[in-house]
Design brief:
The protein is built from 4 helices and 11 strands, in the order E-E-E-H-E-E-E-H-E-E-H-E-E-E-H.
């Protein structure tokens, strides 16, 4: 679902806000990863940048003991995590209000991202995700398809990122 509040509709790239979601920052020691994953009903991948999905939720491995979990708003993952705490000590923090998610799609999306991101986005496989920077803002970039990305950006950096996206989209459109 998308929230059309901030949609820019000029091709070759469409930028739109996605609906709010539950976002959880999870830290758990590798020895307890499987136990907590079972309690959450979600595989917690072990390779940095890999994702897993189940029951409408997604888990992204950000580090050896760090995951970002995204699920539809209203999903209760805190209760099963609390119930498993004795067997799998962990830190689970709701960061839902900290970030927004933008969908970036279209034939020139790789050019748009390359303008402000030092990472080789074209080499990022579909289905992967990564923590990176977009200009000076730390973002999580999810590659959902060959020309379809999601970008999680801190709410406080959103105006700056939106401004850059608009500027680069204008430059790309002028060059086509």
């Amino acid at each position: 679902m998308t929230n059309q509040k901030h949609q820019f509709d000029a091709s070759p790239v469409v930028v739109e806000d996605l609906a709010p979601a539950l976002r959880l920052s999870l830290r758990v020691k590798p020895a307890h990863r499987e136990t907590l994953g079972r309690a959450l009903g979600l595989d917690l991948p072990t390779r940095v940048g890999s994702r897993a999905a189940a029951n409408g939720a997604e888990a992204l491995c950000l580090g050896p003991d760090e995951w970002l979990i995204v699920a539809p708003e209203g999903t209760d993952l805190a209760s099963p995590a609390r119930a498993a705490y004795a067997d799998a000590p962990h830190s689970l923090v709701d960061i839902s209000d900290r970030e927004i998610t933008l969908r970036l799609s279209g034939p020139a999306v790789l050019d748009l991202l390359a303008a402000c991101c030092p990472r080789n986005i074209a080499a990022m496989p579909v289905g992967a995700a990564a923590r990176t920077v977009f200009d000076s803002a730390t973002v999580i970039l999810w590659r959902d398809g060959p020309t379809d990305f999601r970008m999680d950006v801190w709410r406080s950096f959103a105006p700056h990122v939106r401004s850059l996206l608009t500027q680069v989209r204008t430059e790309i459109a002028a060059g086509l």
